[in-house]
Amino acid sequence: MTQVFNFSSGPAVLPHEVLLQVQAEMLDWHGSGMSVMEMSHRGPEFGQILAEAEADLRTLMAIPDNYKVLFLQGGAHLQFAMLPLNFAPVGSTVDFVNTGHWSKVAIKEVSRYANVNIVASSEDKNFSYVPDESTWQRTPDAAFLHYCSNETIGGVEFNHIPQANGVPLICDMSSNILSRPVDVSQFGMIYAGAQKNMGPSGVAVSIVRSDLLGKARSDTPTMLNYKSYADNGSMYNTPPSFGIYVAGLVYKHVLQQGGVAAMEAKNIEKANVIYAAIDASNGFYHCPTALADRSRMNIPFTLADQQLDQAFLAGAEARHLLQLKGHRSVGGMRASIYNAMPLAGCQALADYMNEFAKMKG
Amino acid sequence: MTQVFNFSSGPAVLPHEVLLQVQAEMLDWHGSGMSVMEMSHRGPEFGQILAEAEADLRTLMAIPDNYKVLFLQGGAHLQFAMLPLNFAPVGSTVDFVNTGHWSKVAIKEVSRYANVNIVASSEDKNFSYVPDESTWQRTPDAAFLHYCSNETIGGVEFNHIPQANGVPLICDMSSNILSRPVDVSQFGMIYAGAQKNMGPSGVAVSIVRSDLLGKARSDTPTMLNYKSYADNGSMYNTPPSFGIYVAGLVYKHVLQQGGVAAMEAKNIEKANVIYAAIDASNGFYHCPTALADRSRMNIPFTLADQQLDQAFLAGAEARHLLQLKGHRSVGGMRASIYNAMPLAGCQALADYMNEFAKMKG
């Protein structure tokens, strides 16, 4: 098979070892004679898979006992509606930091059910930075404070956890969960779609403080009530069992590699390789993100001469460096380098960037 | 590997050939160098997978052009809330046929958002039959009429499509879709979770008449509005791409086998093998379902002497006949024999049933 490096922003590259194991077990999981896709979710085999996935995620993130770990469907998108229905009483106000596309999509949906106060926004500079926390205009009695810890399109990442100030802090961590240690106890809830750092699309995870459950609005659809999942071990209905299985293998893989602290060290090294190629290019390449807020997961960059964009992408494809085209709102290129992207992939991209700049610069 | 026959009610057995193909393509789909799990859902590769899945399902079910085919998440359960939010104005009445567990779960959720009129129920005889349509007490201006075409627990299957009488007919076809031909044009909507006859859990399908879209209640979460999926080719957000890929392979497999008419012939033959074992047992085995309404997909049966249940199950396990324990509300055994269960599996079960009855009877 062709060796490629896949810089997709999600669904994204998975660990090679995980894919090999999924392949090996496809027709017969652990001597059961069944594929994981064929197992009753109520049987002991899947029960073990689910329990191990939860336990491993708890270990990886050091999740305190007073937090529930829920496996859901519908991605982060479904949770944009679940947030106000579960956590914001009718007529209440919720606080949002607006740092980019994913913040905006969440705000749009949440504002249909609650008053939204934007505590700060970086829209004035095309979402290229994280607004300084000292400037945030907070609602003292907000139902919650929401932020997106990594914006995949702008390539902007929080390098700290904001102060909660007594309000439940809720974070969309879809694109940098498991990429670095976080102190879960500072959050009311962390949620994430799996398809960037955890597994295939179709699975989402919520890590929610137990005392926040049970207060959903009376008209909340049962499948949009976090309590339905918490009370039934994520099996109120048939869960996305195969996706949970793959996510569980990813958790084991991260544990084997040394956990999230080891991933962080590796991710810093990986990101530095590409940022160095940008910064050493004498303006041939440009990253629009403020230096302090550069993402380790998604690196957007433009070419000074946009006429070269197509040639750059074609040359990258020829070297099997895939899915580098940037989002239309930023233009240029974007390299998404989640946990499963090996250092060799970042080096291959940096080498190509250097050579392309030398050839065309 | 062990050759087993897996009678799980869902997630359930998948075609062996499909699993082999999934295994072969796991690390490199069609020379792309990527697993389907790693592909951007916006890229040409997944675009092809999704388009073929929809086209093949349209071919299989002869879906008219004025119907949308939508791929969703959340199973049938999520749609229980979507039904009233999308199709029943506030204060309206919806009609339900109550033929068992899945009817009841749907009714419970829908009744939170609309008035529910039970046109007929078979609860008086533990959901062992389909109420005669001539007795149904309909609401003339109902927002819709809902039924479940196959109840997996009671083993009760509709052998005809009810009269719509000018009201949109909505069917939960989760457990017998693609097992027989149906005239889609008689329906307002057909919906189904994939994990019985179509693929892994985490994918659901809705086949909805276009003119019914766009009338959702104003407070409907965007992810619960069918129009969000219809307007965006099932990609309003990241779809459960791997599950759709597997479902697409199942569709191709059914097409190769001759389509749903061929499946029906095979399913009749399969079911007859097991029902014959029950009926020839002189009361050693008993199927509680009314003769005319026996399901071809799920066959519940009890042993006259319940003391033998454990021995029956243990002997079945020893022969690699798996997941035969019945639902607690019916007791005894249940053999789920969806499309992907081979005739050999039904014969192996019938042979074992005959021998067990001979030995213990």
Automatic annotation (TrEMBL), chains A, B:
Q: Which UniProt keywords apply?
A: Amino-acid biosynthesis, Aminotransferase, Cytoplasm, Pyridoxal phosphate, Pyridoxine biosynthesis, Serine biosynthesis, Transferase
Residues the entry annotates as binding L-glutamate: S9, R42
N6-(pyridoxal phosphate)lysine occurs at: K196
Q: Which domain of life is it from?
A: Bacteria
Q: Could you give a GO molecular-function term held by this entry?
A: pyridoxal phosphate binding
Instruction: Name one process (GO BP) from the record.
Output: L-serine biosynthetic process
Q: Which cofactor does it need?
A: pyridoxal 5'-phosphate
Q: List, for all copies, the residue spans of the domain called Aminotransferase class V.
A: 4-348
Keyword Cytoplasm attached: yes
Pathway noted in the entry: Amino-acid biosynthesis; L-serine biosynthesis; L-serine from 3-phospho-D-glycerate: step 2/3; Cofactor biosynthesis; pyridoxine 5'-phosphate biosynthesis; pyridoxine 5'-phosphate from D-erythrose 4-phosphate: step 3/5
Q: Where does pyridoxal 5'-phosphate bind?
A: W102, T152, D172, Q195, N237, T238
Localisation:
Cytoplasm
The protein's annotated catalytic reaction(s) are: O-phospho-L-serine + 2-oxoglutarate = 3-phosphooxypyruvate + L-glutamate; 4-(phosphooxy)-L-threonine + 2-oxoglutarate = (R)-3-hydroxy-2-oxo-4-phosphooxybutanoate + L-glutamate
Describe cofactor binding as the record notes it. Binds 1 pyridoxal phosphate per subunit.
Q: Name one GO cellular component term.
A: cytoplasm
Q: Which Pfam families does the entry link to?
A: Aminotran_5
Q: What is its EC number?
A: 2.6.1.52
Similarity comment text for this entry: Belongs to the class-V pyridoxal-phosphate-dependent aminotransferase family. SerC subfamily.
PANTHER family xrefs: PHOSPHOSERINE AMINOTRANSFERASE
- UniProt cross-references to NCBIfam families, sorted A to Z: PRK05355.1, serC_1
Q: How does it assemble?
A: Homodimer.
Function (record text): Catalyzes the reversible conversion of 3-phosphohydroxypyruvate to phosphoserine and of 3-hydroxy-2-oxo-4-phosphonooxybutanoate to phosphohydroxythreonine.
Its protein name is Phosphoserine aminotransferase
User: Origin organism of this chain?
Assistant: Deefgea piscis
